[in-house]
Amino acid sequence: MANYKAGDVIRLTRNAVGMTQEELSNGICSVETLSRIENNRHKIKRETYRKLMEKMGRGVHDNCALCMGRDMSLLEEYIMFEDAMAKREYSVAERYLAHIREKISGSLVDRQYLKRVENFLGYDMKRIDAQECMSQLHVAMKMTVPDYECYLWGEKRDKVYPYREQEILILMGIGNTYYDMNEMDKAIWVYETIIKSLDAGYMDAKNVEELKLINLANLVRPLGKLERYEEALSKAEEGLDMAVSQRYAHALVELLMGVAWNKLKLAKKMEDSKLQKQELKESNRMMRQAYYIAAARKDVHNQKLINENLKYHFGEEI
Amino acid sequence: MDKNIFVENDRHIMEINSAGVVLAYYRNKYSLTLEQVCDGICSVSKLLRMEKGIRCVDSLTSSQLLERIGKTADQFEQLLNDEDYGLWRARESIRKSIQQRKYGKVKEDLASYRTMKNNAPNLHEQFCLYQEVMMKAERLRSVGRVHYVPQDEQAELCETALRALHLTKPAFVFCGSGERQLYTSTEIELILLVVHYGTYCTDTQTEDMLLNLFRHVDYYYLERERQKIGYLILEELIELAQKLQDWDKELDYIDKGIDFVVQGREITGVARLHFLKAQALQRQCGAALAEDNVFRKEIQRECLMAYSVCEVFGDVCLMEAIKRFCEEELKWQITRLEM
Description:
The structure holds 2 protein chains of 2 kinds. Chain A is mainly alpha-helical. In chain A, 71% of the residues lie in helices and 1% in strands.
C-alpha cells in the first residue's frame, strides 16, 4: 500500500504537464503557498489538492482508491489474491477475484484495478495471448492517465511522471508482455521509465524499495537478451546490493542469477584465459548460492530453473 | 520544518481516523472485546470514541492499539496533527539511531524525548524503556559471544524489561497468563527477553506461554512484524527444547520455524534455522553418521542452504560457525559449495 508526498506529486505533475507555478496557482492559492506546498513545507488541504490536480487534468484521489469507505474485508481479499498470484496458485487467486468482483465499487480506480488483475490472471493462465493482454493493459492505463503514451514514448518522454502504484503495476505488466512478445527495446524502456519515476521520491521509501527491486530484476532480462551484458550486470548488481542491505529475500534469487548469468556471458568473450576461468568460477558459485537460497526458501520453481542453467552452461547438476 | 505529508493511498483511502476504522473492523472480525484491545493502553471509552471516529488519539497510542491485533500503523494511512508530529519524528529518529547502533545519540535523544509533552505518559515511558532494554540486550549478546555474561547484568535487564512491560500489562505474571490476552510486539519482545535472561517459572510453564504467544502472532500478525516476532518466539522455543534435551521437539520447532519464515519476504531467520536443523540432524544420527550417506547428504544440504544465505548477506559469524561444524563433525569443506 503506497503513500505519496502531496507536494512532490503536485510538483512532478506540474512539470510533466508543462505548467508554471503562476499558471497552476492562479485562482486557487498564492504562488508562495504553492511553492511551499511543492517543497513539502506546507500542509495541503484535501480541497486545494483536488483543485490543483483537476486544473492539471488529473484524476483526484477521492475517486482514486480501491475499496473505498469502510469495507476492510475487501482489502483482506485483495491481499490474499496478491499472495495467491505470487505463489502461482491461480485457481485460489480466481476464487478471491470472484469475491472481489462482487464487492468492489464502480469507481474509476476500482474498475482499473479489476481490468489489471483480470488480465494478469487470464494471461498467466494462458486464457488470453500477449497481444490481447497488451491491448487490455493499454486500456487500463488510459483510464487514469489518458495521455500516458505521450509520457512513455511521445514528446514528453523525458519528463518524470508521478505514476501511482496501481499505474506502475500496469506498466510493469506492459513491460513483461513486451518481453514475452520479444520486443526487448520496448520492455527496457518501460522498466527504465518506471525506475525513473520511483527514483523521483514522491512515494514512501518502503514501497519504492520493493518495486525497484522487482523492476531491476525485470530489466536485467531483456538487457541480457539483447547481449547488453555489461548494463545488465550493473543493474543486477545494483538490485542485489539493495536486497542485501534491506535483508530482503524477495527477488533475491532472480537478481543473483542475473549477476551470475551476465558474468558468464561476459567471461565467455574474454581473451585472457586466466581471468576468464576466474570469472566463470565466480558465476558458477553464484548460481550455486542462488540454488541453495531458493532451496532454503522452498522455492521449487527457481531451483528447477537454476539447475537447468547449471546443466546447460557447466554440465553439472545439483 | 520538513513535513512529509502523505495524502494518498492507492489501495485504501479511509476516513481521517483510519486507525479507528481498522480497529473496529478487526475487533469485530476476531470477536474481541474493547477491554481486550485497549487494556493498559487507553480507556474503553477512548477506544470506543476512536472507533466511531469521534476522537483522535496520538500516533503512539493508535499504533500500540493496532499492534495488539497484529497490524502496524504503516499499513494504513496515518494523518498526524502538529503536536503529535514532533513526537513521531523523534521516535523515528531514535529507532534509526538504534538500528545504526549510535547508542550515545540514542541516550541523548531519549532524555530529550522524556521532556516532550504527551497525552499518554505510560506508553511513552514504555517506548523509552524498551529502547534502553534493547541497547542492554545488544550489549549482552555481544559480550556473550566471547565471555560469560554476569548475573547482575542479566538481572538488571530483566528488571527494566519487566518495569516496561508492567506499564501496559500491570497484571502480567509468567505462570498461567491468560489465553485471551492480546499483546503488542513491544510487549512480546519484552517478555521474550525476560524469558531469555531470567527464571520466573518452570520450563513447562514457559513453553506453554511461548506457544500461546506464537499462536497469537500466527493468527493476528501480518508482514514484517509477523516474520520478525514469530521467529523470535520460535528461537526461544528451540532453545528451551535444547535445554530439556528433547531432540524430537527441537526438530519439530525448527521445521515449524522454517515453514514460518519462508512465507515472509525477508531473509530473517532463514540461515540460522537451516543451520540449527543441520546440527539437530547430526545430533540425532550420532555415531551412525559415518555409514549413513543419505543422512549425511541431508545435513550437508542444510548447511549449504544456511551457508549460501550467510555468504550473500555477509553474516560472517554464522558463516564461520557453519564452516567449523562441517570440518569438525562432517570432515568436509563447505567453502566450495559442493557435496
